[in-house]
Amino acid sequence: MTKIKWTTTKRYQPYTQWPQARLDEIKTRIKQSQWRLGYHIQPTTGLLNDPNGFSYFNGQWHLFYQSFPYGAVHGLKSWVHLVADDLVHWQNLGTALTADSPLDAQGVYSGSAIPVDDQLFLMYTGNVRDQDWVRHPRQNGAWMTADNRIEKLSQPLINEPAPRITEHFRDPQILKHAGMYYALLGAQYDDQTGHVVVYRAPVVTGPWTYQDELTFSTEKLGYMVECPNLVFIDERPVLIFCPQGVAGSVLATDNVYPNAYVIGERFDWDHLAFVNPSPLQNLDDGFDVYATQAFNAPDGRALAVSWIGLPDTTYPSDVEDWANCLSVVKELTLVDGQLRQRPVVENQQLRQASLTMATMTQALPRQSELQVTVPANQQGKLSILTNLDQQTGLVINIDTVHGKLVVDRALAGRPVATDYGTTRAVAIEPGQPLTGQLLLDNSVFELYLNDGQQVLTGRIFPPSQHWALNLDQLTADVQGWRLDTLNKD
User: Fold this and answer.
1) What CATH number is associated with residue 416?
2) Is 446 within a domain?
3) Of 50, 104, 284, 408, which residue is the catalytic one?
4) pLDDT (tens digit, 9 = 90+) per residue, 266-325?
5) 50 is known as an active-site residue
6) Helix, strand, coil abundance in the chain, percent, nearest 5
7) 236: three-class secondary structure by DSSP
């Protein structure tokens, strides 16, 4: 494999200057990887990051993701286009948006999509740098036809940020309300504080005019807010966003960057404000969730998908020139005013064969689903053994007596981001039973507790092809299924 020194010039080299042999080399190495995923969306080559343009159009679900195909680094970004009939079986249609115009010359950054008449409108941030490498963000538009042909607009929708906003101005979410279009954007003010700002337009192609800052918290939100997404569940507003640099006193997190949410009693469109917003809360209490994108689907559901990966984080698969994946699609609901996240019901199509759970240590497929019920007054461990010789792996410490659950990936395989710790803990209701849904897929786990009240997601990079489930001092009812392999690369 050709080793590349990733200078800035190399990272932003136009795709036309890369030889096909580079992609062929990466694909050859990927074929030998034991960490590739069976049913999660992953990059064909290179790096995957933010999900974008999640929408329903022309009888299909559409989803894009940011991509740099030539290595596991953040370089010149494009969008890859996926479609599905069922939110599970995604077909990769290839690169959809590339950095091929003066409006996005240094990368097609994150954005969203909305159906307009018989076309899908895409709104995204174009990364533009001048000769001194100073960023000049553009908010751009493109039309996609029913046969998935995309044509970019020749002029930006928003040419430059409003006063006070720095070069950090990106990730538009486009919405429609009362005949008007709205765009929520992550922004940094010139005092180095993070905010969400709102633009409005009478038609989707503009003119877009600055309205105001979105009011959803009285707390300081760090130095930048990325990836704002506003959805409505039972008519209540839920804002999902990424407050970079937020203080631990505002949002307790062990991750380098958090993904948070706020719930309001209602949304005041006249003042662009949440009424009685909740405190900031972590969307995912695990290790590796960021840049979640959500939208209100036409079937009435609020759907979301997350990047399983974090900025400024190195993963073991980087040496194979690929990195990161997306979560399964999740449905968001409110129960007694609390947010719940569950894999969409369509995900049950992946179930192939039931697993017999007859002993305390049971062989386990690396693509599997476990449904676990732990009675009250239990203290013990549920482990996914990834090294059978040493009896080590992913450990879930469960204490329903005192109300605590801890996920420990320290001995699950190759180390990941150990500077930020190897455990993640959540409080559960003491003296009550616990239910959990655990999705496993080679180098990813997604753990949903108590019907999605809490979620912990993370990457693991195990040394072995052979896994086992082990219960240690824990009485639990476990049902399991082997899950289908959808990815064929």
Assistant:
1) 2.60.120.560
2) yes
3) 50
4) 999 999 999 999 999 999 999 999 999 999 999 999 999 999 999 999 999 999 999 999
5) yes
6) 5, 50, 45
7) strand
